[in-house]
Amino acid sequence: MKLLPRIDAEGGAEWLARTATLCLIDEARLSPKPGLVDSRGSGAHHDLTLELMERSAHSLTPTFQALAQQSWLRPADVALRQTIGRLGREGEQQMMAATGGVNTHRGAIWALGLLVSAVAMLGGNAPAQAIAATAAKLAQLPDDAAPKLFSKGLRATHRYRVPGAREEAQQGFPHIIKLALPQLQHSRQLGSNEAQARLDALMAIMTSLSDTCVLSRAGLEGLEAMRQGASAVLHAGGVASIAGQQALAELDARMLALNASPGGAADLLAATLFLDRMTTPYLAN
Ligand SMILES: CC(C)(COP(=O)(O)OP(=O)(O)OC[C@H]1O[C@@H](n2cnc3c(N)ncnc32)[C@H](O)[C@@H]1O)[C@@H](O)C(=O)NCCC(=O)NCCS
Ligand SMILES: Nc1ncnc2c1ncn2[C@@H]1O[C@H](COP(=O)(O)OP(=O)(O)OP(=O)(O)O)[C@@H](O)[C@H]1O
């Protein structure tokens, strides 16, 4: 794998932040995504629009930049964990201020925030697996300053006894490393265009994630519909094939009927695009 040239802390932090924001915007615009906000419309969401998602993404650039600056060449220890926990929570507040109190990117701040920190800890240059493993170390450390708040995601992980956003990070983002990135590369190699390859990567995540957004809104029936529908798209030949496009349209209709939206999968797609840009020179900017 070819890596990017080594970069310095200041320019590196700015570049990482810009790239993370771009990945959020790329994810939001990518269409057609089942149940999610995309350039066609709001999906299963009544309080979200593409414009709001983009405004939210831009509001997070300073947070990502501060995360990168504070993490540059630092080791994974409790002090750094507490710093990035504080910056992440401040980022959530900035997001809420920019969106008028709507949760657009809570899960994305968590996943991308940890990954931005991890790249910076590694000096701005490392393979995807090393970045994910470093982010996992951070996620495993305690953050005693974190308020013990109730959340829908936490309730879903307890009720259904499944891993959620926290565990995905603590395990080193297996849905990105083992499913999404390999699928992205595979679909590109088969000649899919970039949007099709990204949609295939989203499908790969959706075949197995316990997405607490889906569980909170549509229970196990919604989760099963998501997983089966995404498998059907990939088995039909992926989004580049006519049969795959048909299966994707069916999945979209099913998710809308169930009021289900795979927001966790969308966050992990944005994080996948980020790791892809970190390690694919022609996509870097
Ligand atoms: C751990 C987090 C995600 C809270 O998780 P919790 O499940 O309690 O909350 P919540 O339901 O609001 O958020 C979960 C979000 O993650 C996404 N998600 C859902 N399921 C999954 C999954 N299986 N895998 C990954 N992401 C998922 C969804 O978008 C969902 O909205 C995080 O918000 C947090 O602790 N933030 C504090 C600040 C911090 O420590 N930041 C450090 C890094 S910047
Ligand atoms: N393109 C997208 N469309 C919709 N959601 C997305 C998209 N990308 C990421 N998400 C994620 O989905 C989550 C939103 O899910 P959801 O609306 O279920 O959360 P909520 O605000 O907790 O619940 P509710 O809207 O039911 O009150 C966000 O935290 C965000 O991280």
UniProtKB/TrEMBL annotation:
First-level EC class: transferase
This protein's record includes keyword Nucleotide-binding: yes
Protein keywords: ATP-binding, Nucleotide-binding, Transferase
Gene3D superfamilies for this protein: Triphosphoribosyl-dephospho-CoA protein
Domain of life: Bacteria
InterPro entries the UniProt entry points to: CitG (IPR002736), TriPribosyl-deP-CoA_syn (IPR017555)
EC number: 2.4.2.52
Catalytic reaction list: 3'-dephospho-CoA + ATP = 2'-(5''-triphospho-alpha-D-ribosyl)-3'-dephospho-CoA + adenine
Protein family per UniProt: Belongs to the CitG/MdcB family.
Role, per record: Involved in the formation of 2-(5''-phosphoribosyl)-3'-dephosphocoenzyme-A, the prosthetic group of the acyl-carrier protein of the malonate decarboxylase.
Alphabetical list of HAMAP family matching this protein: MdcB
NCBIfam families (UniProt xref): malonate_mdcB (TIGR03132), PRK01237.1 (NF002315)
Protein name per Swiss-Prot or TrEMBL: 2-(5''-triphosphoribosyl)-3'-dephosphocoenzyme-A synthase
Protein species of origin: Kosakonia pseudosacchari
Gene (UniProt): mdcB
